[in-house]
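Hi V.,

Quick status before I head out on leave. The structure for the redesign project is tokenized and pasted below; the design run finished overnight.
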């Protein structure tokens, strides 16, 4: 959405450059009102219905953007905590090695999508920590290596 608003020349409305409403009879009023309405419309069409009130309550595009940022920041924090907890608790149990490692990769990719990096060593540690007991000898062999293998090894 950011890129679209920039390309359309509306980002300055989000930044608050055009926050002050011109006098209704002023020549620039119609342009300001039309641009402000377009920005608010763009924001409203790009969010889920349950978030529309956060836009409707805003008096300016800058305020609407600020409201949306608060919501997404809270959701990102909750999502990050949830995904980290899933990684901490993941166990292979009856999954194949392929399914297990793909699940770890999926969780790490999900964290990456919200700008949380999980490095290769951490992925290896997570994988080894949740291996089923039948892979105990493999875990010991990997831990005994001088250099830790990459996650994909």
């Amino acid at each position: 959405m950011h890129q679209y608003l920039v390309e359309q020349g509306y980002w300055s409305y989000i930044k608050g450059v055009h926050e002050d409403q011109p006098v209704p009879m002023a020549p620039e009023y119609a342009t300001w009102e039309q641009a402000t309405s377009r920005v608010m419309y763009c924001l409203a069409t790009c969010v889920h219905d349950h978030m529309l009130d956060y836009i409707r309550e805003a008096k300016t595009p800058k305020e609407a953007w600020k409201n949306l940022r608060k919501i997404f920041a809270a959701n990102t924090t909750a999502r990050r905590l949830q995904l980290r907890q899933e990684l901490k608790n993941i166990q292979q149990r009856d999954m194949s090695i392929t399914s297990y490692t793909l699940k770890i990769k999926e969780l790490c990719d999900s964290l990456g999508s919200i700008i949380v990096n999980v490095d290769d060593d951490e992925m290896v540690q997570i994988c080894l920590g949740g291996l089923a007991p039948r892979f105990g000898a493999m875990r010991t062999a990997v831990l005994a290596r001088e250099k830790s293998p990459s996650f994909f090894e």
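Above is the designed sequence. The mean pLDDT is 90.

G. will cover questions while I'm gone.

Best,
W.
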